[in-house]
Design goal:
about 180 residues; alpha/beta; seven-stranded parallel β-sheet; 7 strands; about 15% strand
C-alpha cells in the first residue's frame, strides 16, 4: 500500500494526525448548523449522520425542544454519545465561534446548485428551521455560497434530515476525491 493510500485509510478511520503530531480524531470534517430547529427527531437524525461522517453539530438557540429531549436521543439512537455537539446562544455567538471557516447556506430559494459548489474540510453548512428556513438577515439567495438541492417543481422542499445527509455525503465525496488527487 502506498503512503497516499495509507493516509486515505487513516483519514477514513479518523486516525489522522495534525502537522504537530497530535491526533485529530475529534476534529470535525465539517460543521452542521441548525438555526433554531423545531423538530427534535430531525435534529436526532442529523446528529446520527454527523457521527457517521465525523461532522460537528451546532444548534443556534432558541430550539423548540431541550437538548435532553427523549425524541432527540431516540432518533439519534445509541450514537448520540459519540456526537460532537455544541450550541450557540444566537447567530453572532455562532459566527464568532466558527471564524474563519467558510459558510454555506441552504435554501430552496438559492440560485446556486450544490452540484456547482466546491467544498473543503471544516466547511460550515447552515440550515434553517423546518417551518421558515433561514431569515433574510442570514440568507442572501444571490450569494454564491447560498446553495439549493435541485428538485422537481412539484416538490416544495425535502425533509431537513434528508437535506443535511445529501450535503454531508456530497462533502465526503469531494473530500475523498481531493485525497485521491
Amino acid at each position: 500500500m502506498t503512503e497516499k493510500q495509507q493516509d486515505r485509510v487513516q483519514r477514513e478511520k479518523g486516525e489522522r494526525s495534525r502537522s504537530d503530531g497530535q491526533s485529530i480524531a475529534n476534529d470535525p470534517t465539517a460543521h452542521v448548523v441548525l438555526y433554531q430547529p423545531e423538530i427534535a427527531q430531525n435534529t436526532g437524525n442529523i446528529g446520527r449522520t454527523c457521527v457517521a461522517v465525523g461532522a460537528k453539530l451546532w444548534i443556534v438557540r432558541p430550539a423548540a425542544f431541550r437538548l435532553d429531549d427523549k425524541r432527540l436521543r431516540r432518533a439519534g439512537l445509541d450514537y448520540w454519545q459519540h456526537l460532537m455537539l455544541e450550541d450557540a446562544i444566537n447567530w453572532d455567538d455562532l459566527t464568532h465561534k466558527l471564524k474563519p471557516r467558510r459558510f454555506f447556506y441552504f435554501s430552496r430559494f438559492a440560485k446556486q446548485s450544490i452540484w456547482d459548489a466546491s467544498f473543503e474540510r471544516e466547511d460550515v453548512f447552515v440550515f434553517g428551521s423546518e417551518s421558515s428556513g433561514l431569515p433574510d438577515s442570514i440568507l442572501d439567495c444571490d450569494n454564491p455560497q447560498s446553495l439549493r438541492i435541485p428538485m422537481r417543481p412539484e416538490v416544495r422542499s425535502l425533509n431537513l434530515g434528508n437535506t443535511a445527509a445529501i450535503v454531508l455525503y456530497e462533502h465526503q465525496r469531494q473530500m475523498r476525491m481531493q485525497m485521491e488527487q
